[in-house]
Structure formats: C-alpha cells, structure tokens
C-alpha cells in the first residue's frame, strides 16, 4: 500500500516511484544496490566516483598506481574511473532487466570529472537515464548531457545556486533537465554545500528553501512537472506528508542516501553496517577537514577525532617580530624566524614534551604539532597523490594548467582517495573516513531494523512506500 498522495512520475520515458537512491562516493553505491533499486521501481544511482572494476573471476581489481608522476597517476585514475563506472552501469542495467531507471553520480570537483563523464557516457549509450552532479558548480553538465541525450540533475543547496547555473548554461538545454536535487547542507551525508553566508551550527528548515527554489524555477519557465528532489535527512515519508501533492512546491521526489547503506545488496563492509546500528544523535560531525574545501558529514570516529586534535595543536606565527608575536618558537621548527605569542610558545613546548615534536606549516600562517610517525604518514600520502580532485588542499594538486594550486599543502587535511578506498574495501572503519547523513542515528531507533534485521533493497523500497 503506497503512502497517501504519492504518485509515480514520468522519468526517462518510464513511470517510476519518486524515490531516488543517493549515489555515495567511492564504491559505497554500486551496481548491486542501484540495479536492485531500479528493479524495485525507483531510480537507482551508480556512483561513478572511482568505481570498482572486476577481474575474470569477479574479484575487485585493486586500484594501484604504477606511474611515478602525479600527472601520470592522474591519467591512470581517469582510466580506472571510466572502466569501473562502465562496468557498474552495465551490471546495474542487467539487474534491472534493462527496464529500470539508472542514473550515475559524479562530483564536479573530482579530478578529471569531464573526461570521466564523457568516457562513461560514450560507452554506456542507452543504459544511463540521467546524471546527478554536485560538489561545485557544474556549468558544463547540461552541455555534456545533451551530447549524449541523457537527463541531467544538478545538486544544489539554494535557489541562488540554481539560478546561476540556469542563467549561465542550463537554459540552453532546458528539455533535458530531469530534476533539481535540493541537498540539505546541514543534514546530508558526504560533502555539503554550505555557503559562507550560512552558519554550520544553525540548521535551517528546508521547506522555505525548497519553496524559494521552486519559485526561482518557475520564474525561469521551468515546469512544475520537473521534480525537486529533497535530499538529506529523509527517513519516513510520513514526516514529509505536507510536501507531497503540495501546489506550493510542485512535483517532489525524495532521495535516500543513508538508509540504503544497510541493505543486503549494499556493498559496504559488514563492520560499517554493524556500526550504523550503534550511532546516537550527534555522532555524525559536520566538519571542514576535507581536502575539497567543502564542509562534509561523517561519523565522528577515531579518524575524525585525530584530525580535530591535530587542528587543536595549532598556533599562528609571523616571519618577523610583530604585534603579539614577540618571542621565537624554539621547538618543532628549524630556524629562528617563527615568531609567536608567549602563551603559544608555552603551549608548543607542552605539546613537544608530550611527543608531538614536529611542527608542520599550513597555508594559513600557522603550524600544527604532530608526532614523527604522523608527519611521516602525511608526507608519504602527499607524495603518493594521484590527483583525485580538481583542486586538492592536502597535496596542493590541481588537475589542469600548471598542476598546482599555488598554495602550501595543508597537513590538517588528509588523502581522501586513500581513506575512501580503504573504508569501502576493508573492515577497518574506525581509522578511515566513514561518510553518513545526520539521520543515521535512526537505524538504532527504527523498529524495522530491530533484531539485527537487514532488508533487501526491495523490502526497503516497499517499506518506504508505506510511509515508514
């Protein structure tokens, strides 16, 4: 029995439920989950961010890099990404019997986003219904989608962002706008689109923001039949009853990113699934450690707590004596031209005595104190950078022009490719980045998951359709 007022929508020439599976990063959403979601009547989403390929025995091919230069490894990464995403799309398409709606999801700020998207769409013609894309301002998305005749679904966090995309590019390809995904910047998992004008500690009600988005779309001549997809914080449809069939909002669909993590088909390791059942409110942290420069949301495990602690062992310095900086730093650095405040020198001496003996410079004229083994790991990871982002704060890589951001590499961040590959493919979840939406604590509270029950994707979709 479907939840009151919920109706199928027309998407890609077929009727589907307005339920979209969120496409979660590196290998957290693959063909098994997205194909099953599409087969259940919703819109499945394959993550095209460094997706897995398989050998002839069906085993995942490890993405190891042979090239000695970053530019060389970056080209290897692009090949891995295209081959993996093509394989995932083909398998998802088969699982949905060639009838389901399969989207792919990419991050515009990932390294080589445009050649990867073009390479995947070239090799999966007729299998991909649409492309969801966020993490940045993907102005070229509509033009690329038009070349391959697929829908495009930009991910935005404000009406203003949509207006900018529409005015600059999307109005030229209006007929292929499949939906606009509103991703709540306070509640969604992964990378979040908080602007400088918004307070990370003061979440805003999504209803007025989505209403403003619809008004902007109407003002630009976009039909109410083009859905707005509510993403971030969606759990029970009954909690969104006043959004469904609401003339103020037009057609609404709902994206589920966190709930599909805990299904039989979900490819994440069992330790990650088990951890999801234990989360409490507040266990997911909105933080700024990502090398993308965006806010992002992940479980506050030892990995994140270590990054928090590292940033707390931080003091500002000047190269000359000036203002409060009246004494020279005498621990952790070479040379005498690090001038700091007396209180900060005292703090630095305590950190040094506690074993955090090495001071690393940041791009913001501060130094952070780390243990020698931490320093070695940071420098090794920076050295092995494979250019997975268009701009990387951690390694100072840029995927075009002179291949450098021109800024100092930032030791307060981390290699995101390394940790996301590790969390998706090993049982080690506590010392890696574990993305999750801020509603993940509801796994523990929702009776559907009691007695360690893990649903199939079909069971989950049926449950969601019931309002629960």
Please summarize what this structure is.
The chain is α/β, with parallel strands linked by helices. It has 13 helices and 18 strands.
Task: Write structural notes for this entry.
The structure is a single chain. This protein is of the alpha/beta class and 468 residues long. It folds into 2 domains: 9-278 and 443-465, Alpha-Beta Barrel (TIM Barrel), CATH 3.20.20; 295-425, no CATH class. 31% of the residues lie in helices and 16% in strands. It has helices at 31-39, 70-95, 113-123, 141-148, 159-168, 206-219, 270-276, 302-312, 342-353, 372-383, 416-425, 442-445, 457-465; strands at 9-11, 14-16, 19-21, 43-47, 101-107, 130-134, 151-156, 180-183, 190-192, 228-231, 252-256, 284-287, 295-299, 314-316, 327-328, 339-340, 358-361, 366-370. Strands 3-11-10-8-7-6-5-4 form an 8-stranded parallel beta sheet. A 3-stranded antiparallel beta sheet has the order 9-13-12, with no helix packed on it. A 3-stranded antiparallel beta sheet has the order 14-18-17. A hairpin with a 2-residue loop joins strand 1 (9-11) and strand 2. Helix 2 runs parallel beside helix 3 and helix 5 (159-168) packs parallel to helix 6 (206-219). The radius of gyration is 23 Å and the shape is globular. It starts with 8 loop residues before the first strand and ends with a helix. The model has no long low-confidence stretch (mean pLDDT 94).
